[in-house]
Amino acid sequence: MGDAEAILRFREPMLLLFVILFSALPFSSAFSVGFYTFSCPTAEFIVRDTVRSATSDDPTIPAKLLRLLFHDCFVDGCDASVLLEGDGTERVDPANASLGGFRVLDSAKRVLEMFCPGIVSCADVLALAASHAVALTGGPEVRIATGRRDGRVSAASNVRPNIIDTSFTLDQMASLFISKGLSLDDLVVLSGAHTIGSAHCSSFSDRIQVDSKGKLTFNAPSLNHSYAARLAKLCAAGAAASVKNDPETSFLFDNQYYKNLMAHEGLFQSDSVLFDDQRTRTLVELFANDEGSFFDRWGESFFKLSSIGVKTGDEGEIRHSCSSTND
C-alpha cells in the first residue's frame, strides 16, 4: 500500500470524526447552550462581571434583574421588549413602573458592543444577567441557552393580561403559567424568586388595613397576625413605602421563602395560596425542608422560563442599544 493510500485511509475516519464533532458545536443551533462560544467567547463573562460589579455597589440589583426577566418573558416571550423606551411601550404600564436594573443591562451591552459589535442580543444579556444574579446571591448556577433575538414590538396593552397580580388566586396563576408552557410545579418553584427583593406596601395593602385610630384589620385570615402587625408598622409611612419580601435573609437566594410560607408569613396573596392550597402545599413543604431539592428544581424551571417565546433567525434583530430598535 502506497503512502498516499495510507494517508487517505487514515484521514477519512478522522474527517468523519471532525464532521461529527463540528456538527455538535454550540453555534450549530440557533438557540443553544454556549451559542456565543466562537462568535463572542467573552459574552457570558462580561455580563457576569457587570452584574457582580453592580451588585457590590447596590445589593438590590439581583432581585431587580430577576423580576425584570419575569416581566419580559411573560409578555411576548423573552425578547427584551420590556427594555424598549417610548410612548405606549411595556415600560409605561403602571405594573412595570417599579422595575429596575436597566442601567446594569445597558452597561453590559455597551461593553459587548465594544468587543463583539452586533453579535449579542439584549434578550440574551437580560437572561444571562438574571441567571448570574441568582448565583451571585447564593443560588444555583444555571447554564441557560442563548441565541435569542430582540423583539421589535413593545406594547403596554400586552402587559396586564400576561403578568401575575399579587392578588391572584392559585387557579388564576396556574392558568397563566400553563398558557406559557409552564406547570403548576413550575409556579411553586419560580415563586421562590421572592426569597430576594422588596415590594411597595401598595402591592399588599388589601391584606391588612389600619384605621385612623390605629386599629389593625386583617383581610387575609391565614396571615400570621404578628407578621401582619409588623408589616402595618413598616407601612405606616404610606403605600409608597417598601418592605423586604423575605425579612429573614433578604439578600440571600435560599429556601427561606418556603419556610416563611409554612409560618403563614407570605407577603402577597399569591404567595400565601401556595401553602394554603393542597395542590401545592406538598412541594412548598419539600422545599422548606430541603434546599437542595429547591435548587435542583429551580435550574429546570428557570431554564423553561428563560426559553418562553424565544425569537430566532429573522424573527427579531440584534439591537445596538437595548432601549431602542435599530430602525
From TrEMBL:
Location(s) in or outside the cell: Secreted
Entry EC no(s): 1.11.1.7
Active-site residues, as the UniProt record annotates them: 71 (proton acceptor)
CDD domains linked to this entry: secretory_peroxidase
Entry's cofactor comment: Binds 2 calcium ions per subunit.
Entries under Pfam families matching the protein: peroxidase (PF00141)
One cellular-component annotation, GO: extracellular region
Residues that coordinate or bind Ca(2+) 1: 72, 75, 77, 79, 81, 90
Domain of life: Eukaryota
Function field: Removal of H(2)O(2), oxidation of toxic reductants, biosynthesis and degradation of lignin, suberization, auxin catabolism, response to environmental stresses such as wounding, pathogen attack and oxidative stress. These functions might be dependent on each isozyme/isoform in each plant tissue.
Family to which the UniProt record says this protein belongs: Belongs to the peroxidase family. Classical plant (class III) peroxidase subfamily.
PANTHER family per UniProt: PEROXIDASE 6, PTHR31517
Record protein name field: Peroxidase
